[in-house]
Write a structure and sequence with these properties.
The complex is a heterodimer of chains A (309) and B (294). Helix content of chain A is 73%, strand content 1%. Chain A is mainly α and 309 residues long. Chain A has a single domain, classed as Orthogonal Bundle (MetI-like fold), CATH 1.10.3720.10. Chain A has a two-stranded antiparallel ribbon with strand order 1-2. The longest helix of chain A is centred in the first third of the chain and has 38 residues. Chain B is mainly alpha-helical. Chain B has twelve helices and no strands. Chain B starts with a helix and ends in a 7-residue tail after the last helix. The chains are: A mainly alpha (309), B mainly alpha (294).
Chain lengths: 309, 294
């Protein structure tokens, strides 16, 4: 009979396994704490919280819709800018540039991904905002002002600024993963296409087709980063509670409203409402990330073991 | 060696007597990829340039050793914030490094089954949780029970943020230890735990240190999770149960303040922060090659 013996091996393995188990514990803790903190708000406002547009701490009425809207709009803008540029750059690095040049450029891009978000925020606030205010936004209003999208006043800070800063921040994620996925596709795909008389661009198109799931994964991963990005957005979005069709207008995101108001929140309901926003943000980013990581894992055949951004 | 597409581009240029629409289109697409690369590098270069141009003038020894001056007085430094960041990051590492390295070694040495796959996936998901949400969790976990903002709460938040990176990069570097090391040690009759503890881990030590340092450097730049955990402090404080200043939060406050001198110092603080984070990352990445997934 096999007795349950305590061996040195078992103890050692158990200790390391215990450390690994702590990961579940930490995630559970985040779920527990945000749910507990949001309980009061959940109870008071129910599902109406997600659709409410009033944010009035004095009257203790809270609705998250303007922030959900702001998060979606700023992230969408960021992806509209970052996806074509990121994929183009990845193609350049993987298909066109010499291997050594490609390696150096990717190294620099990944290094820049390590710049803290507050630094992007300062740049967006002191450099990008004045430029948008004096040059870009007046031009947009003069030429495209007939569209609701570009109607309004050139504030400099607002959705457009947030979208641009977010695009700069998430583009390294798209570039580095897409490049890796492209490099993982068989070289013979291009060679076959070229042998059949395809032009270089058409051969790249074939490789892109093969890399599509992984590239999609990198884009969703970038979306996850953009949705939760806090400091840079807080500094450049203007933090006003309104839903406006114009991307020139200021707004707020879920992350920025928490960063901006948490320490000023005095009543328990107010704090609870902010924590519920954190809970919603948490749920959204978990779903987005779960999807992205599955795609990246599948596309690289587990080669890229970790998809940490 | 260059990519086949680039070779073919050159061949196309040589042989094309008459240039077809498809060839022109191909040139346009390839040109657009070059342009995309330039457009991605440009803003990043601009940020670095502005950071240096605006941050360097106020960078001096005084910035590192002096305390912030009261509003209206020029000068002063961020000594308390720099020390505060070191304390916060140290606290986080105290929690995250042992757990993260342990978990990473487990995944590499014993991680074959479904349990390990789930741990990996969960660690990746944890890495994708927005840092502000981690701050909210630390608020509920530490600030409320302790009855106030504290360095400890900030350290816990930073530790949670470091954890996934340390786990996944440790696993990656420990995996790089050649299989023959393990086989040789086992053949000599060493039990598994001795093989791991006395052969595999020492062989991977440089990589493990690198992995941990990278995670720590990243965490040093985090602002959002500290806003309502460590809070911030205009004064000298090293007590773990009291609010403590940190470089990122001080930079944030100074950048939003309506004083030119504070704005200038915010740029300098940002420059110091970037130097801390990127210099550590760059040096580590270059010295210990190919040890980190990215």
């Amino acid at each position: 009979m096999k007795a349950a013996r305590i061996t040195a091996d078992g103890v050692y393995r158990g200790a390391l396994g215990g450390a690994a188990t702590l990961v579940f514990f930490v995630v559970a803790l985040i779920v527990f704490e945000t749910t507990r903190g949001a309980a009061l708000s959940l109870q008071k406002f129910g599902l109406g919280f997600l659709g409410g547009t009033v944010w009035d701490p004095v009257a203790e009425k809270f609705g998250a819709l303007p922030y959900i809207y702001g998060t979606l709009v700023s992230s969408t803008l960021a992806l509209l800018l970052a996806v074509p540029l990121g994929i183009g750059t990845a193609v350049y690095l993987a298909e066109i540039a010499q291997r050594r040049v490609g390696a150096v450029v990717s190294f620099v891009i990944e290094l820049l991904a390590a710049i803290p978000s507050i630094v992007y925020g300062i740049w967006g606030f002191f450099v990008l905002a004045p430029w948008l205010r004096h040059t870009i936004e007046p031009w947009l209003i003069a030429n495209f002002g007939f569209l609701p999208l570009f109607r309004g006043y050139p504030f400099g800070i607002g959705m457009l600024n947030a979208g641009i800063v977010l695009a700069i921040m998430v583009v390294p994620t798209i570039v580095s993963i897409s490049r890796e996925v492209l490099l993982a596709t068989p070289r013979s795909l291009r060679e076959a296409a070229l042998a059949l008389g395809a032009t270089p661009a058409e051969a790249i198109g074939v490789a892109l087709g093969a890399a599509r799931p992984g590239i999609l994964g990198s884009v969703i991963l970038a979306l996850g980063r953009a949705l939760g990005e806090t400091m840079a957005v807080t500094m450049v979005i203007g933090n006003t509670n309104r839903i406006s069709a114009s991307i020139l207008d200021p707004g707020a995101t879920m992350a920025s409203i928490i960063a901006n108001e948490f320490t000023e929140a005095t009543s328990p309901t107010y704090i609870s409402a902010l924590i519920e926003i954190a809970l919603v943000l948490f749920a959204i980013t978990i779903v987005v990330n779960a999807l992205a990581r599955l795609l990246v894992l599948w596309a690289t055949g587990g080669r890229r073991a970790s998809a940490l951004a | 060696m260059s990519a086949p597409v680039a070779v073919s581009e050159r061949a196309l240029a040589k042989t094309a007597g008459h240039i077809s629409r498809r060839a022109i289109w191909s040139r346009i697409v390839i040109g657009a990829c070059y342009a995309a690369g330039a457009l991605v590098i440009l803003p990043l270069a601009l940020i670095v340039w502005h950071l240096i141009a605006k941050g360097l003038p106020a960078l001096s020894l005084s910035f590192f050793v002096n305390m912030p001056k009261p509003v209206g007085e020029l000068g002063g430094g961020m000594a308390n914030a720099i020390v505060g960041t070191l304390i916060l990051v140290g606290l986080g590492a105290l929690f995250a490094v042992p757990v993260g390295v342990g978990a990473g070694v487990y995944l590499s040495e014993f991680g074959r089954g479904r349990f390990s796959a789930t741990v990996r996936y969960t660690a990746d998901l944890l890495g994708g949780v927005p840092s502000i949400v981690v701050g909210v969790a630390a608020y509920g976990l530490v600030v409320i029970p302790m009855g106030g903002f504290s360095a400890l709460a900030g350290g816990v938040a930073l530790g949670i943020l470091m954890l996934p990176t340390i786990i996944r990069s440790t696993e990656e570097v420990v995996r790089l230890v050649p299989q023959s090391y393990r086989e040789a040690a086992l053949a000599l009759g060493a039990p598994r735990w001795k093989v791991t503890q006395q052969v595999v881990i020492p062989a991977a030590r440089a990589g493990i240190v690198t992995a941990s340092m990278l995670a720590i450097a990243r965490a040093a730049g985090e602002t959002a999770p500290l806003l309502f955990t460590a809070l911030g402090n205009r004064f000298w404080s090293t007590g773990l149960d009291k609010p403590i200043a940190s470089l990122p939060v001080t930079v944030f406050d100074y950048a939003r303040a309506p004083y030119d001198d504070w704005n200038r110092q915010a740029w300098t603080g940002a420059l110091v922060l970037v130097m801390i984070v990127t210099v550590i990352s760059a040096v580590l990445r270059l010295t210990v090659k190919r040890v980190i997934p990215r």
